[in-house]
Amino acid sequence: MTGDPCAERGPGLGPGEHGLDVFLTGQVFMDMIFTGLPGLPPPGTELVTDGLGSAPGGVANIAVAMSRLGLRVGLAAPFGDDLFGSYLWRTLAEQEEVDLRWSRRIAGWSSPVTVSLAHDADRAMVTYTRPPPGEEPVTAPPRASSCFVDIDRNVPDWALALRRGGSLVFADLGWDPTETWSTDVLDRLEHVDVFLPNAVEAMAYTRTATPEAALDALAERVPVVVVKQGAQGAIAVDARTGERASAPALPVEALDPTGAGDVFAAGFVFGTLSGWSLEQRLRFANLVAGLSVRHRSGSLGAPCWGEIAAFGEGGEVPPEVLEQYAFVVPHIPRTELDRGADSVARAEPTLR
Hints:
This protein has 352 residues and is an alpha/beta fold. The chain is built from eleven helices and 14 strands. The strands form three sheets. Strands 4-1-9-10-11-12-13-14 form an eight-stranded mixed beta sheet, sandwiched between helices. It has a four-stranded mixed beta sheet with strand order 3-2-7-8. Strands 5-6 form a two-stranded parallel sheet. Helix 2 links the parallel strand 5 (78-80) and strand 6 (104-106). Helix 1 crosses helix 7 (260-273), helix 5 (199-206) packs across helix 6 (211-219) and helix 7 runs antiparallel to helix 8. The longest helix is centred in the last third of the chain and has 15 residues, at 278-292.
């Protein structure tokens, strides 16, 4: 077992009136990522590669990303009692400092597994999963400043309870495999404070032709809307104040986009709880997402504050671009500013 890959996770946001910064539920996957492939294997053939990494996946992507920014994260999830389940539990609880007191180990249940074949800036995946037996909903959620939910399903009762107590509800959603894009999904936004779809999803659900039109349509349903546009950056509107903002993506070469949307969301949550302007939240979310895609590692590609502090030291962006991120500096731990780029630490793949 390695030590904390982030030597300093940041000052967090202070104790506040809640015990956690973010609470969320979901399923954790064992991600096995093959890299360095010359192509995808045709039927009846075998490929040999020297690149293999393992990392927690699924809901762990966003939980790890938020924890690495110093947020106090609570997770309720089922874990198998097999070898993978033990690895996932230890990695999240001990290495990534995610609070698992609301999670549980299930006897006789095998951990979900996703095998990813990364090739030519894209990937193909195979997943094994089956529902955990006797899955119990969260009935007594902990106090938290915010929570994160997936509105592919109904907003859970525990999230509604947190919202009634003053917590912010952040939400995202996944790809609709039926491609019917039922507008019933959007009716759930009445229970949401911040919604973060990507452009394709936003346009499909709102029946609009541009990300900007989708943004306006969604702003009629939810207070804060962010539409992620990948390499084109992101746009957002706060319907309560009328504030609108846009921010470009980070100018980096993307190696693997796995989990980038979750890292973006983690950055936006951090900026919201820090009280930043809408534009600053977008810039920071794009910054951390951009740093994450430079690594082939899923959840473990989420940046630590050391990597954020080192951003720009290699001359990859001009000074005028760096100036746009000056608002981030007060949140960078002093130790990371002193150590500089050579101190950047991150978890290594379990297998290489």
